[in-house]
Amino acid sequence: MAAYRVIPLDEELAWKVRGSLRAPDYRHPAYVDTADSVGPCRVCLRPFRVGADRRILFTYDPFRRHEPFPLPSPVQIHEAGCPRYTGHRLPAELSGLPLTFEGYGPGRELIAEERHAATAEAESAIARILGRPSVAYVHVRDTATGFFICELDRGGVASTTAAGGAGATGDALV
Ligand SMILES: [Zn+2]
Asked: Which residues have beta carbons under 5 A from ligand 1 (an ion)?
């Protein structure tokens, strides 16, 4: 099974939004309410408890680390602080959610896209997409809403260029 890194929303950015109630980069007002859907929270990646958890909805550009031109998505986080997810697999709590996996190359070129719900299917989809040398990172989205959930990449594994060839990188991914 492929090794990969799960990249939730940056904690510092989340605390700025909690403090200002404004979207980063856009300054639109953020919206606070009680969860009426499971989310999940983009920091801890835990589903919201419907009718109980308070959440903040705001505009976020999930490409801000990669591209000069934004393409924003609404995202939701817990209103109160929560621990950033640090696992090395998609959280099991996300299994059952309809998820879309989008593999992007340089220039935001969409190289691969798959939709799955079950965890086992999701893991093999991630392996397939990250196994393509032209894919630099994967966005995980909620299939029902299209909202961005988190990013995946190869983590500490060197890029194709740095490793000196696709073969070397592919071997390192196993
Ligand atoms: Zn959270």
From this structure: 41, 43-44, 78, 82
Single pTM value for the model: 0.87
DSSP string, 13-24: HHHHHHHH-B-T
Alpha helices by DSSP H, the chain: 11-20, 119-130, 160-163, 166-173
pLDDT of 167 higher than 70 = no
Report CA(50)–ligand 1 centroid distance (Å).
Answer: 13
Q: What's the 42 CA to ligand 1 centre distance in angstroms?
A: 6
**Identity at 57, one-letter amino acid code:** L
Give 166 Cα–ligand 1 centroid separation in angstroms.
Answer: 36
Average model confidence (pLDDT) for the chain?
Answer: 89
- Alpha-carbon distance of 69 to 74, in angstroms, equals 17
